[in-house]
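Predict the 3D structure for this chain.
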Amino acid sequence: MSHKKGILALSPLVVFIVLYLVTSIVARDFNKVPIIVVFMISSIYAIAVTGGLSVQKRVSVYTRGASNDGLISMLWIFVMAGAFANSAKDMGSISSIVSLTMNLLPSSMILSGLFVAACFTSLCIGTSVGTIVALVPIAAGIANVTDVSVPFMTSIIVGGALFGDNLSFISDTTIAATQTQGCKMSDKFRTNLFIVTPAAVLIILLYVFLGSEIETPHSHVDTSPSTILPYIAVLVAAICGMNVMAVLTIGIALTGVIGIAQGAYDLYGWFHSMWVGIMNMSELIIITMMAGGLLELIKDKGGIDYIIALLTRRINGKRGAELSIAALVSFTNVCTANNTIAIITVGGIAKKISERYGIDPRKSASILDTFSCFVQGLIPYGAQVLMAAGLAKITPIDILPYLYYPFAIGIAALMSILFRYPKRYS
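Done. Predicted structure below.
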């Protein structure tokens, strides 16, 4: 592909980033610019500049990206998560859990306790989205009864969720990284642990320090087991390895049975509560579909292939080879907004680079997984940030400045390349 065609293929992404940044900087407020409108303008531009196809075919490619199986499955999770979160909230589940947390944990442990809980949950269930669905409403509830901002509290859960996404044996990213690089999951886990453990420990200590000045009022809200049961069931079912949609179905059913039995709402009130929760996710659903369509047009015109060829053109030595793998998966993740797809897309190329320059497959698998999680946690149109923002009723941009853990693992992974550690795998 020529340089001109490659730049043109990538230009819709450039338009999106520049348009959003420029308008937000001019307004001096990142919340003033609706991200859904920026996606719409960028999508129209992408369809307009895609040459070689009729307008109908261009729209068809866009629609294919906005409705692929993986994306539609994600949208179903968004719908069910919204229904569960709001119906659980209306029956008193979240207020009960928040009260229990306030009474059991000392003030200094609120932030670090939530982060560790998110890390453990995501490590067990292997999905960051499932962890976010279960814990973000609780974190937002705690924020509302303390002096901590909702975006900051939400970011703690997103960071912990990405910890497990990066390390769990049953995470899609782990499976994709190890399969494409030809190494054992246990070996990749050990290598990955060497890289991210310092970052995780540092973040825990940071949250202990930041939490030392938090004032948590003693709560007297009812914390009966029945009101907490839906969330306990969701966590246990997820840890047992159930599909996320099946987990949410169980949670929704329990909110209905318990909520109606306790008089929190009647049948029609339950239906209305679920409807409100689903409508709260409507903007998130539209943004996700637009992002899928936009990125499909970029991919169809060779934008991802172009950047891959560009980055692998001048590799020199192991360090350069590892940096190129990191850059490949990072940029592909920006273009696809899905860390698993990004790993699968460049995994074969990363394997060839590794073999040519003698990179340990355990190290290349760790680089793929860690950098993809780093980027996934920082893009405002990624599923994790979008889901968290939707559940906390804030904008994705509100969360980004507080995403300390994704930043930390990105820096840790870069340091592992530059300073060649862990030595055994470098």
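Residues 230 and 308 are 45 Å apart (CA to CA).
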